[in-house]
Write a structure and sequence with these properties.
binds ligand EPZ, 2 domains, 423 residues, UDP-n-acetylglucosamine1-carboxyvinyl-transferase, Chain, 14 helices, 24 strands
């Protein structure tokens, strides 16, 4: 089923000040690996704070195709992996989301045999999976790559290994942790990714009976256990949605209070907003951001692996830099092409030049309404932020990209006073 792009459109009347309180949705990048990891258990896992997103729906479709049952009750998803019947994932389901590679570790640990197609590239450029494959091969998995198809089986047994990652890849770290949880022996991951979503996955797996130590640090140790049992788990809040809504507050001169937020997950993001003149107050219940009348540019933003500035926040924060007084230099170190939003921001009147992985933003006083198109998830978020501050009526197409990672964005923004409609 080829998705028809551009069918969902937002219409935004910009220039309004926002106010009020937001309870953050659960983290997309926690939900996806944890849903895959439920395959290690046999029985019913209960996952709270699981956001309603198209990427989550795609993961549930894969679990149902394999033979699991999955149902949603509000923000809780219940997955029963007791009876599974298939060990292949059809291309159509694999292509619905790039991160479906995260099912590889879980399925090989459950079935000893997996067939799936390469997740292929995505809007951010090529999405190689060489680190996933080389690590799983070191754990005793035979992987045949053939015309975009992966055919994997366990040679004699799934066993632990000492794995050193050249790049602290989030997905590779997750696939290894999941495959290692029930492998024979111990696995040590060096230069592991340290994202909060890695810790959340380890917390879920440990609740199921796994023995994972050091998640969140650069060295993670997993002592394989015979079998995992189902668990109840609540996802952490989505720190990238928080950064996005903070940008929306900043560009509209607003004050917004966030609840259900974990401030420590945003320690590399808060300074960017403070440097731009925003006040960030952390109180017992959450975090408040108050924007100044005129933003000043944050000067330099380099995306780095956690705990550095997150690449996923680069696009939404660029919309803030576009109307901040002064020049901001962005250096996108994580992905080859993550500037698809730049040409569209320039249609709003932003002054941005891109040279390779560097984007130079010269802040302007005012953005003007425009009709623009989204080409990837976080780029779509950047366009929504820009439209909120651009005077007049803007239309944004390609909103289906946004719905991969933002739950009911138009409802959340309308509740804060924005004039935004989905047509
Ligand atoms: C995760 O993607 C996130 N997705 C991404 O969020 C996020 O941008 C990224 O981590 C970086 O933080 C999910 O968690 C579902 P990586 P992932 O492996 O795991 C290269 C969003 O907007 N690499 O850490 O795919 C890769 O090309 C999404 O929510 C290899 O070379 O990211 C990239 O340059 C977008 N070989 C770098 O490592 C590999 O085998 C980091 O990628 C794997 C990765």
């Amino acid at each position: 089923m080829e998705r028809v792009l551009g069918v969902s459109v937002y219409v935004v009347e910009g220039g309004r000040t926002l106010s009020g309180e937001v309870r953050l949705q659960g983290s997309k990048n926690s939900a996806l690996p944890i849903l895959a990891a439920t395959l290690l258990c046999r029985g019913e896992c209960v996952l709270h704070n699981c956001p309603r997103l198209s990427d989550v729906e795609a993961s549930l479709a894969i679990l149902r195709y394999i033979g699991c049952t999955a149902r949603r009750e509000g923000s809780t998803v219940i997955v029963d992996t007791g009876s599974v019947t298939r060990f292949d994932i059809p291309t159509e389901l694999m292509h619905r989301m790039r991160s479906s590679i995260i099912f590889l570790g879980a399925m090989i640990a459950r079935f000893d045999r997996v067939r799936m197609s390469f997740p292929g590239g995505c809007e951010l450029g090529p999405r190689p999976i060489d680190l996933h494959l080389s690590a799983l091969r070191e754990m005793g998995i035979e992987i045949c790559e053939d015309h975009g198809e992966l055919d994997c089986y366990i040679r004699d047994e799934l066993h632990g290994a000492r794995i050193s990652l050249p790049i602290p890849s989030v997905g590779a770290t997750e696939n290894i942790m999941i495959a290692a949880a029930t492998a024979r022996g111990t696995t040590v991951i060096s230069n592991a990714a340290r994202e909060p979503e890695i810790v959340d996955l380890a917390d879920f797996l440990n609740a199921c009976g796994a023995k994972i130590h050091g998640a969140g640090e650069s060295t993670v140790v997993i002592d394989g256990t015979e079998r995992l049992s189902p668990a109840v788990h609540a996802m952490i809040p989505d720190r990238i949605v928080a950064a996005t809504l903070m940008s929306a507050a900043a560009v509209t001169g607003s004050t917004i209070h966030f609840t259900g937020i974990i401030p420590s997950h945003l320690e590399s993001v808060f300074p960017v907003f403070r440097d731009s003149g925003c006040e960030i107050d952390i109180d017992g219940k959450g975090v408040s951001i108050s924007a100044p009348y005129r933003l000043t540019s944050p000067k330099l933003i380099r995306t780095m692996p956690y705990p550095g500035f997150p690449t996923d926040a680069q696009a939404p924060v660029m919309s803030m830099a576009a109307v901040a007084d002064g020049m901001t230099v962005f250096v996108e170190n994580m992905f080859l092409s993550r500037y698809s939003h730049v040409s569209e921001l320039c249609r709003f009147g932003a002054n941005i030049r891109v040279e390779g992985k560097v984007a130079v933003v010269d802040g302007v006083r005012q953005l003007l309404s425009a009709n623009v198109r989204a080409y990837d998830l976080r780029g779509a978020a950047a366009l929504v932020v820009a439209a909120l501050c651009a005077k007049g009526r803007s239309e944004i197409s390609g909103i289906e990209y946004l719905e991969r990672g933002y739950e009911d964005m138009e409802l959340v923004l309308s509740a804060l006073g924005a004039d935004i409609k989905k047509i």
